[in-house]
Amino acid sequence: MPTLNPYLSFRDTARAAMSFYRDVFGGDLVVSTFADFPGMADPPEAELLMHAQLTTPQGFVLMASDTPARMDYTPPAGVSVSISGDDEAQLQQFWEALADGGTVVMPFDTPPWGGRFGMLTDRFGIDWMVAYSPVTP
Question: What transmembrane ranges does the database entry give (predicted)?
Answer without folding.
Answer: none
